[in-house]
Design brief:
- The protein is α+β, with helices and mostly antiparallel strands.
- Helix 7 crosses helix 8.
- The protein has a 6-stranded mixed beta sheet. Strands 10-9-8-11 form a 4-stranded antiparallel beta sheet. It has a 3-stranded antiparallel beta sheet with strand order 3-5-4.
- Helices cover 34% and strands 20% of the residues.
- Helix 11 links the parallel strand 12 and strand 13.
- The protein contains 12 helices and 15 strands.
- The protein has 3 domains: 139 residues, no CATH class; 81 residues; 147 residues, Roll (C8orf32 fold).
Length: 411
């Protein structure tokens, strides 16, 4: 078994250069040899039943199965004028908020009832945070109106990035994409399924690209499939609100162990099945941490998590008043029964069978502690017990995240 450990160790060291998130990744054969491809990311997401993939060619795209019971015609629509931040305001601030909102919607100038420019700045941020469909402004200008030399009131004009005609055309394209996405949503019985569907859609259809056009808005994700955190989070908010699920845009700083260090960042606050959670679809997209390109899987380390879990890597902007998220019921690992309190070979085998029965291409689970994680890694990889889970296949691709104590295997 010495050779096995030596090769595994080399795999871990190689991927540490590519990504600080993945602490173990590769393909292992039954004879104990770990195959290391210089372009190892090509291994991830490969369907080993596809003969073209075995030859080193790109696997053929599988036809998507049709999904019955669509929701688009019956979805409750979120009231745009009552976004999360609007709900935290008093009556005077709500009036100013609505004045700003009306001006931006009209792509025009708004007369303001307040003259406190600092407050205007805060409420302008709140309006933009509550309304991802306002994708066409990246700031504002203030003009003072005077009577007999005395300043009487302010006017706010957005720094509009598109003309009214262009906005109408782009919005039409966005709504077309929105309808297409939501029409394919299965008729889930609760919010968990809807949130996961949209989370997975964004993560698998978007690549992280700092050079993406309109990367601060929903345009970049829905029309170009490339964005950064702001685009990811605003699109998550937009689609969830359209699906009748309260979702807010949150900003601050984060260190997702992506190799980029502490950075300004945006994510979401989501109310699912009556409880508030945090969600970061950007950090659940593997293209953020794998510099070599997109891989065909989705992570769930930041899917409907608690405030305590979030605070390990994220710092919320001090100006925001947000609920203390403590619920765990709709967390992916808890909801799917994918948490191991110890090495349980029978339970792991059950998880493989369940995933295979659902037609899933990979399985991901989390360990409760680093001790459990190391034991699972030793048993499954060093002792090769993974091959007791996968039938007659002669090799398996996998990915480990020691930071989040999660393990992923392709089926």
């Amino acid at each position: 078994m010495g050779n096995v450990w030596r090769y595994l160790k080399k795999t871990v060291m190689y991927l540490a250069v590519v990504s600080m998130v993945l602490c173990g990744c590769g393909r292992m054969d039954r004879d104990g040899e770990v195959v290391i491809n210089p372009d190892s990311q090509e291994l991830m997401g490969v369907d080993f039943s596809d003969t073209s993939a075995q030859k080193g060619e790109k696997p053929a795209k599988k036809a998507k199965s049709s999904k019955a019971g669509t929701l688009i015609d019956t979805l409750p629509k979120a009231k745009i004028s009552e976004g999360y931040y609007y709900g935290t305001l008093g009556s005077e601030d709500r009036q100013l908020y609505n004045e700003i909102l009306s001006g931006l919607r009209a792509v025009d100038t708004a007369d303001l009832s307040q003259t406190d420019q600092d407050r205007v700045d805060v409420l302008f941020q709140y309006v933009c945070a509550d309304h991802p469909e306002i994708f066409y402004t990246d700031g504002y200008d203030i003009t003072w109106k005077e009577i007999l030399g005395k300043k009487t009131h302010m006017q706010l004009t957005g720094k509009y990035t598109y003309s009214k005609d262009e906005i109408e055309t782009i919005m039409g394209k966005i709504e077309k994409e929105r309808d297409k996405i939501l029409k394919n949503m299965p008729a889930y019985q609760d919010d968990y399924g809807r949130v996961r569907y949209i989370h997975d859609y964004i993560a698998t259809h978007t690549s992280y690209d700092t050079g993406a056009k309109d990367n601060q808005s929903i345009v970049s994700v829905l029309l170009y499939q490339k964005s950064i955190c702001a685009g990811y989070a605003r699109t998550m908010q937009y689609l969830l609100n359209e699906a009748g699920i309260p979702c807010a845009y949150v900003w601050g700083n984060a260190d997702g162990n992506t190799g980029r260090g502490i950075m300004t960042h945006a994510w979401n606050l989501v109310q699912a099945d009556g409880d508030w959670y945090y969600l970061d679809v950007t950090f659940d997209d593997p293209s953020v941490s794998l510099d070599s390109g997109k891989d065909n899987f989705v992570k769930y380390d930041y899917f409907l998590i608690t405030a305590k879990e979030l605070q390990a890597t994220h710092t919320i902007d001090s100006s925001l008043e947000l609920p203390d998220c403590t619920a765990t019921r709709d967390n992916y690992y808890i909801r799917e029964g994918r948490i191991l309190g110890g090495y349980d070979k029978d339970r792991i085998r059950e998880m493989f069978l369940e995933a295979s029965a659902k037609g899933e291409r990979y399985i991901i689970f989390r360990c409760e502690s680093s001790g459990v994680f190391e034991m699972c890694r030793y048993k499954l990889i060093d002792e090769q017990e993974i091959f007791d889970m996968i039938g007659k296949r002669k090799s398996v691709s996998y990915s480990f995240d020691q930071e989040k104590l999660s393990m992923l295997f392709w089926l």
